[in-house]
Amino acid sequence: MAGASSQVFFEGTEKLLEVWFSSDSESPDLRDVKQEEWEKLLRIVRCEIISKTSNADMDAYVLSESSMFVTKSRFILKTCGRTTLLLAVEPLIQLVKEQCGFSKVLDVFYSRKKFAKPEQQHSIHQSFDEEVSHLDKLFKNGAAYTLGRINKDCWHLYTMDAVGVMEPDQTVELLMWEMCPDTMQIFTKKVCKDGPEATKKSGICDIIPGAQIDDFLFDPCGYSMNGLLPGGYYITIHVTPEPHCSYVSFESNVPQENYMELMEKVLNTFKPSKFLMTVFANKESIAKDNHKQLENKELVPGYTRADHQFCTFKNYNLTYSHFTRPII
């Protein structure tokens, strides 16, 4: 994002960090951290805050490179491009200890799709091995996984090898690339004047109706949006529209027993040639059995399922599916 031009490659694939904190003290709250402190942390990551929206459960920030979400005890940071997300993990832990009184990392999740051009990343992000090595220095009981084909498209995950989050928790992601050129034109200044126009014209506003939307259209192209819903639920979408590196990500923690209708809405909105879908839900979530619906390889009309993996670790179920549109 951040106004990427059509002449330069931009790595749309995001690095996604989710950290849950706990404390023995009375009711600490991550939202007590002042915005200027978040801004200092984000300078380490090499991005900045564009806008903020809030409801009773969550603060959501649109960034120059993707998004950040803050609840009482959970921190989510998602950054694209050449950002240095993992350099901020240790400062984050120190910040929330000093500012809020959080004394313990309850759980951590770091994930990303394989980069298109890893050599353009900071050295800490040029390989998953380097990322794991860095995280292992911070967490004694880390566990690293790769799903998919390591010589082609795959998805990496790092988490803690112990049960941490006991409240219902779920995340669904659709990571899409080789996008429909006509659809991607909507996310340029040539077609839309601002974020709200792009949100309406693309149909994003209809994916999960009722969300409190904060959207931004970059110049000359690129788009980011956060949507807040009651109960600490969110959606976030990021678009890199350039034809030579087109990419779109959709993420939400809205709990559903079956994500098929939501997936169809997202695919009909963006029309990717390829996408991977991950559904991550713990045993307390109503989404825990979504893998049963995803077992059908004819699940998505117009696409061929290239890979499908299901795994269980600690108290979570994780499903990974990779789909491609057949070449005619």
Automatic annotation (TrEMBL):
SUPFAM superfamilies: S-adenosylmethionine decarboxylase (SSF56276). It catalyses: S-adenosyl-L-methionine + H(+) = S-adenosyl 3-(methylsulfanyl)propylamine + CO2. Pathway: Amine and polyamine biosynthesis; S-adenosylmethioninamine biosynthesis; S-adenosylmethioninamine from S-adenosyl-L-methionine: step 1/1. It comes from the Eukaryota. The record marks 65-66 as: Cleavage (non-hydrolytic). It holds the Pfam family SAM_decarbox. Keywords: Autocatalytic cleavage, Decarboxylase, Lyase, Polyamine biosynthesis, Pyruvate, S-adenosyl-L-methionine, Schiff base, Spermidine biosynthesis, Zymogen. One of its GO terms (biological process) is spermine biosynthetic process. It is an enzyme of class 4 (lyase). The modification Pyruvic acid (Ser) is found at residue 66. The active site is at 66 (schiff-base intermediate with substrate), 80 (proton donor), 224 (proton acceptor), 238 (proton acceptor). Its EC number is 4.1.1.50. InterPro entries: AdoMetDC-like, S-AdoMet_decarboxylase_euk, S-AdoMet_deCO2ase_core, S-AdoMet_deCO2ase_CS. One of its GO terms (cellular component) is cytosol. PANTHER family: S-ADENOSYLMETHIONINE DECARBOXYLASE, S-ADENOSYLMETHIONINE DECARBOXYLASE PROENZYME. Belongs to the eukaryotic AdoMetDC family. This is adenosylmethionine decarboxylase.
